[in-house]
Amino acid sequence: MRGFCVPDSATRETVGAAVLRPLQQEDAARFHQLINDWDICRRLPEAPFPYPLETAEAWVAAAVADRAAGRAHEFAILDADGSMIGSAGLRLDAARGSAALGYWIGRRFWRRGHAGAAVAELLHWGFAELPIATIEATVAADNAASIALLERAGFSATGRGHAKFIGQPGASLPVMRYAITREALALRHLAAPEPVAAPAAAKPLVLVAACALVDIEGRILLARRPPGKKMAGLWEFPGGKLAPGETPERALVREMEEELGILLREEDVAPFAFASHAYDQFHLLMPLYLARRWSGTPEPREGQALAWVPPDRLDEYPMPPADRPLLPLLRDFL
């Protein structure tokens, strides 16, 4: 049971199927009526059962005070007719730059989208208005509905544990811990660009990721294409085509294992430059990455020859035309 608040000048906020407003002392009786339900209290660590009216009044009073002090931002969820149907909000941890999310909906109003709409708005408001970088949530491990809601909202599981629930004295129950960062939420809402229709005569665009592996002596690994492949005998940077839906970084992790038998992590590659070249039948776009860390020793897994080449000798190796403009950049950098 955490809280959410909108500015005093905006006492209500429409959120999907629900309306939100700051929790008020006058809500205590309705708060008690809704929360005094075993199916709700058993899922809330801080909720006793039965839930006395006096406890509801005290909790709402504390929520109002916490909002005034900036410690928590408690919020009532209203149905379309203006009646309170639940509560949600955020409680700040200033030292950690985070906030804890909590929410509950009266049982009669489950499965109507109110909780999901309220949580979505809480996330956007919290990251926009509060000095936090992370929002966390702890949920009972058997609360499948809330787990699904958090995952739909973009939360990622961060661990498991146990917690005491007041409504179940003496029991330490398994819980799941979740978190979402401001950056993760922003990335979820970046709309994919609309595809642009290619001119009728345009060549197919082929996207290939390549990696310049640099050893401790500053040499770069080149691979020679084996007989039977297009451009056989030419030397190139290891890499390959992207699979549908694959990122360049993920493609490099896969290709390095398949081609060279080494383990390369996504965080070990850094974008360096890119090549753009029109071949007769297609147009190649090739981002080139640099990597200085990997596990294992590169070995030819696909019949190719390998060579560790000092930067000032790269010109001695015949390469595809798309690769050659990258050589001066590498020499200058290394």
What does this structure look like?
The protein folds into two domains: 13-188, 3-Layer(aba) Sandwich (Aminopeptidase), CATH 3.40.630.30; 205-333, Nucleoside Triphosphate Pyrophosphohydrolase (Alpha-Beta Complex), CATH 3.90.79. Strands 1-2-3-4-5-6-8-7 form an eight-stranded mixed β-sheet, with helices on both faces. A four-stranded mixed β-sheet has the order 12-9-14-13, covered by helices on one side. It has eight helices and 15 strands. Helix 1 (28-35) crosses helix 3 and helix 4 packs across helix 5 (144-153). Helix content is 25%, strand content 31%. It has 334 residues and is an alpha+beta fold. The protein is elongated. The protein has helices at 28-35, 38-41, 53-69, 114-129, 144-153, 182-188, 248-260, 326-333; strands at 13-15, 18-22, 72-78, 84-93, 98-105, 134-140, 156-164, 172-181, 205-213, 220-224, 235-236, 239-241, 269-278, 283-291, 305-309. The two termini are 56 Å apart. Strand 13 (269-278) and strand 14 form a beta hairpin.
